[in-house]
# Entry
Amino acid sequence: MDLEKILNSAINRKILKFFDENPHCIDTAKGIAAWTGLGISTAKKALTHLAVNNLLIEHKTASTLGYAYTHNKTVIKNIKHWLAKTDEIST
# Structure
């Protein structure tokens, strides 16, 4: 996984920032789209990509699919570092 490449996407950054600020949240693509201001199809695509790269965890039930932040402390630390770095660049 190339975290820098993943975080080059403003959409991925927006979703990961949401989870970094709400680390205990589990929500659907529709809910995350609403919280982040993204379209549902855009959010679904990004959430799937982030889950495949182990930055998010998929929670599947019979009727829905939810997403949560990774529990890997090293990955979380690296995400925080890159988010802070990209925030510095944009300010």
The first helix runs from residue 3 to 6. The two ends are 27 Å apart (CA to CA). The CA atoms of residues 35 and 46 lie 14 Å apart.
